[in-house]
Amino acid sequence: MRKHLAGLAIVALASAAPAFAQATYTAPRTADGRPDLQGFWTNTSLTSLERSAQFKDLVIPADQAAKLEAGRLAANIRADAPTDPNSGAPKKGQDVGGYNNAYVDAGLHYATINGEKRSSWIIDPPNGKIPYTTSGKKAFDDGLHFVRNTFDGPESRPMAERCLVGFGSTGGPPMINVMYNNTYQFVQTPENVLINVEMNHDARIIPLGVANTEVYQWLGRSKGKWEGDTLVVETTNFHPGESLRTFFAASYLLSPDAKVTEKFTRISDSEILYDFTVNDPKLFFQPWRAEMVFNKSAQPAYEYACHEGNHALPGILAGARENEKLGMANYAEESE
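RESULT FIELD:
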């Protein structure tokens, strides 16, 4: 996990980034003449994939955004305060909490795109919601119910819990921010683009030009091409085990036959505009499209180590076996 002070530096840089690039901006070039996307970037933000019920529209009014951001800053300051040593031990059965705030880097600002504070990454449908069909929503709900209530063995647990990929949809595609480890490193050659994801050090290798897309991989099979100054990446053949991407209220489902089209355009010295469209007729009644901004990171990626697989997972399964001995139901309110 990133150290909290480093995360604050990233947030400060992100919030200071220009609202949107001018049409006259010319991106720096690599040795082969392509726009240079290389370096460390972050999508840390209070903006989420889907629109929260607290917002009516895509654009958050400036005064409302300022008030919400000030509230988040105040909450962060309170959470960073040392624990009162005289508070005593928690009462029996009381939730003792999870991460200390120092380990969380969820951002202090909503994303600014085209000069607007955005309430969601999704811009189409206009309501900012994933457009599940009735059967698609049932498949999603059934999948969540399964992972939150099934503890028979490691195979029934989410991939992130087994340290196979990052939780949520950090590796993507599409690549979605979570509560920490939202840094990405881009590396380019004339033949490939590498996106190294801080979360779980997932690595996406994107061949430019002809690519074998027939094999199913955790993050799908990608192929890229340059269209002017925009890198366009198409990804298909997602591994079935990565269909359900769980991150609390930001969980969602893709079928292995989904097609994700991503567009990366460097729009200023400190921003990459990330535009993506998800097409999956098995689950959605229309394709859905989103815009995100990656801001230049003040820090490199943190060396991530996933301990869920060798610590949390055995504990989860052992706890389930103990519940079974006691005749208790195995149930989890939330699961990542």
